[in-house]
Amino acid sequence: YIWPSPQLDELESARFDQKGSNANALSGFLPSCDSFVFGANTGRSNAADWIRTAYHDMATHNSTDGTGGLDASIRFAEEQARAENAGDGFANTMTAVGVQVSRYISNADGLALAAVMAIENCGGPEIPFRGGRIDATEPNAPGVPEPEQDLDSHIAAFARQGFTQTEMISLVACGHTFGGVQHDPFPDIVNVLNDTTDTEDVAHFDSTFVTFDNNVATEYISGTTQNPLVVGFNDTTNSDKRIFGSDGNITMLSFSNSPALFASTCADLFARMIDTVPSGVVLTDVITPLPVKPSDVVLTMNGDVLELSASVRLWNTTDTTSSVSMLWKDHIGGTGNNTMRFSGLSSSTGGKYSAAWYSVFSGTIANFLSLDPTAGITSMSFLVDGQLEDQNGLGFAIQDGFMLSKTSCQIEPFVSARFDVAVRNGVNATRVYLEQITTDTLQRVVVVEIDIPPPSQPVAINSAYSLWSVNVTNPNVPYAIGAEIDGIKYSTTALYIVTGFPSCST
Ligand code: HEM
């Protein structure tokens, strides 16, 4: 895709900046594969909860009528209260997912991403990830398979979800390479274990329960498995035993013989699982990393100076010594350049990919350049070790028609504030507005537009820009700035917290 594209830019970052510099918010919940929100030695892991939650959310899908699917309906208390969703793993997961949710990333995309991150970062294969899932507004019809149901009901449940019997065997094995069954929600399957390293009494599906591997199959085939849904004391709830054995063990044998086949099969089925969405939802293409990606591009008007901060991410390198320059074009035929400096490394997909970050510097001051407002800036490109990176000649477009002015201030600290927006003279800005980022009662991020009235008398901030101002009385939410220019809506990627503004009286 072509940068900038606010939704794709953000999905791409969330998906590919997983560790290190600019790591996505969700990664804070996955410092290691055995980490668990409620503490160590519980026998549980966030990674396992995330994968199970994604499956249970999807498992309501009805491929005949197109209802249900991965739409984060599992976040509703009514779904979590169902017997088919026993345990607190769903609530945990949706709390973690919440940190990644934004105007561009739904709860459902966040949940899909959580599952992808858990699998990829804990030994599993790379999963093609798409965005664009839409959050359900109400619980879906029940339909998650339960261990005490018979094989025919499981085959029927997976068929309703869109999976064949072989795919059912495979997907269950792919999921049950993580985690296990806890005593508390399933006392009829697992006894109290009295193990200080497993305080929530989890009987694990395989011996490597925080990592993806084919041990779930090798241990099953070799007869050494301790899987509580295969060799549990209660045969009625031995659903993995019935499912795995339902084709005479052909599928499980193939997985036991080939870790590679297991991984590639799981990559395919996990991708289908997270892409199973209610009909009418249109997912994006598979998100692929931009080779050169501007990041944190922020314009701010500071009196007579247009301040520009920017970073760039160079994909697939750990080179901290590249020669990187940012080049830019302005409105009056001029150009500029700045030598960027290395600012950090990141990685994703379990360390499979790395990226190096470089940022603009002004003298010794990191992170912003001082530009002439009259010249402004129209586009950037980058010179990386002598190679021009300009999106095949398009450049990386920058919208300098509007930006925050540093004259913005707090009228009454922590109560009210004034936003001053610098609008470029001569630009066809039919509307300028604030975008208040809030959360509705259904935990969806919504953007409330607050129009900024055009000034009755132009208020010049400098020779090229005028101020449009509006007061806000809700200081506890972030704001972006939006404008409609030549009929196209633009938003700042920067979010502003008014309690950080200086006082208007000083
Ligand atoms: C007939 C189908 C299935 C049944 C009856 C079933 C049953 C169960 C049960 C009873 C648990 C224990 C939950 C707990 O104690 O917290 C569990 C855990 C889990 N299931 Fe399944 N499952 C099925 C299919 C799947 C599928 C298709 C996936 C994913 C692709 C999956 C992923 C998981 C994971 C990751 C856990 C571990 C959760 C944790 O340790 O916190 N399951 N499953």
What does this structure look like?
- With 506 residues, the protein is an alpha+beta fold.
- The chain has three domains: 8-274, Peroxidase, domain 1 (Orthogonal Bundle), CATH 1.10.520; 292-397, Immunoglobulin-like (Sandwich), CATH 2.60.40; 402-500, Immunoglobulins (Immunoglobulin-like), CATH 2.60.40.
- Helices cover 22% and strands 25% of the residues.
- It has eleven helices and 22 strands.
- It has helices at 6-16, 46-58, 77-80, 89-98, 107-121, 151-161, 165-175, 215-222, 239-244, 250-257, 259-274; strands at residues 19-20, 180-182, 202-204, 292-302, 305-315, 324-329, 335-348, 353-359, 361-362, 365-366, 369-371, 379-384, 387-389, 396-397, 402-405, 409-412, 416-424, 429-439, 445-451, 465-472, 479-485, 488-491.
- The strands form four sheets. Strands 1, 4, 5, 6, 7, 8, 11, 12, 13, 14, 15, 16, 17 and 20 form a 14-stranded mixed sheet that branches. Strands 19-18-21-22 form a four-stranded antiparallel sheet, with no helix packed on it. The protein has a two-stranded antiparallel ribbon with strand order 2-3.
- A hairpin with a 4-residue loop joins strand 7 and strand 8 (353-359).
- The longest helix has 16 residues, at 259-274.
- The radius of gyration is 26 Å and the shape is elongated.
- The two termini are 46 Å apart.
- 43% of the residues are buried.
- Bound molecules: protoporphyrin IX containing FE.
- The site of protoporphyrin IX containing FE has 27 residues, from helix 2, helix 7, strand 2 and helix 9.
- One of its GO terms (molecular function) is metal ion binding.
- Destroys radicals which are normally produced within the cells and which are toxic to biological systems.
- This is Peroxidase.
- Residues 29-273 form the Plant heme peroxidase family profile domain.
- Keywords: Heme, Iron, Metal-binding, Oxidoreductase, Peroxidase, Signal.
